């Protein structure tokens, strides 16, 4: 489409709400263009429950409200069901609505499973603690190079903080929580007409 007198160079459909979208440029990825309402919503300060929020003129990443505030385990010492369901789902939907490639989350899950196997074989959790911290270093590197969104870094950071406490936190907490997040993430990505940025 040629540029009209209003500056519109491309017309299509909003990837989030399905309404008409018109922009003054030809997008590299038309499947990710937002209409003016959805774009404006992204630019305004959010309600503060989760996602990106504007603070002091810069975008601040906020994890889902209450995310892992109670840790991985309940008072009975067993994993809380929320780490597999509610909190896992909220985190997965936030990640799915970011620019995170499914392969990055799968890669994290695969690395964590390999580390779990090492702990199970050797019984030496202290030997892999630096490898768990390495997950955070790698997330920081890929976020700094703009390969992964900042919310992925915050997600890894919170989980590494909890997972390095002891072997139980790693095996029964992080591994199981990440399994839940991965499952909900794949489901969220499979939804038709799901708004993606």
Brief account:
The chain is mainly alpha-helical and 197 residues long. It has helices at 36-43, 86-96, 102-122, 125-144, 150-163, 167-190; strands spanning 10-13, 20-23, 51-55, 58-62.
Describe the structure.
- With 197 residues, this protein is mainly α.
- The protein has 2 domains: 10-40, no CATH class; 64-190, no CATH class.
- The chain contains 6 helices and 4 strands.
- The protein has helices at residues 36-43, 86-96, 102-122, 125-144, 150-163, 167-190; strands at 10-13, 20-23, 51-55, 58-62.
- Strand 1 (10-13) and strand 2 (20-23) form a beta hairpin.
- Helix 3 runs antiparallel to helix 6 (167-190).
- The protein is elongated, with a radius of gyration of 20 Å.
- The protein starts with 9 loop residues before the first strand and ends in a 7-residue tail after the last helix.
Q: Give the count of structural domains.
A: 2
Following the backbone from N to C, one meets helices and strands in this order, namely EEHEEHHHHH
SS class: mainly alpha
Q: Round the mean pLDDT to the nearest integer and report it.
A: 84
Radius of gyration over C-alpha positions, nearest whole angstrom: 20 Å
Helix content: 40-55%
Beta-strand residue fraction: 5-15%
Low-confidence stretches: 44-50, 52-58
- How far apart are the first and last residues' alpha carbons, in Å? 23 Å
Can you tell me the overall shape?
elongated
**Physical arrangement of strands within the biggest beta sheet:** 1-2
Number of strands: 4
Number of helices: 6
Main beta sheet, described? 2 strands, antiparallel
């Amino acid at each position: 489409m040629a540029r009209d007198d209003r500056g519109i160079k491309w017309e299509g459909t909003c990837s989030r709400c399905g309404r008409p979208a018109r922009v003054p440029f030809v997008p590299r990825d038309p499947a990710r263009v937002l209409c003016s309402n959805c774009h404006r919503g992204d630019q305004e300060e959010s309600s503060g429950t989760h996602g990106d929020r504007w603070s002091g003129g810069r975008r601040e990443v906020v994890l889902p409200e209450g995310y892992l505030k109670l840790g991985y385990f309940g008072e009975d010492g067993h994993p809380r069901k929320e780490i597999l369901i509610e909190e896992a789902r909220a985190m997965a939907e936030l990640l799915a609505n970011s620019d995170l490639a499914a392969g990055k989350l799968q890669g994290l899950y695969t690395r964590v499973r390999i580390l779990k196997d090492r702990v199970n074989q050797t019984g030496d959790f202290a030997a892999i603690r630096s490898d768990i911290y390495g997950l955070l270093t790698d997330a920081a590197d890929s976020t700094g190079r703009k390969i992964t969104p900042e919310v992925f870094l915050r997600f890894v950071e919170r989980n590494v903080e909890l997972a390095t406490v002891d072997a139980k936190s790693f095996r029964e907490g992080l591994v199981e929580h990440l399994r839940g997040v991965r499952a909900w993430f794949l489901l969220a990505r499979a939804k038709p007409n799901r708004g993606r940025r």
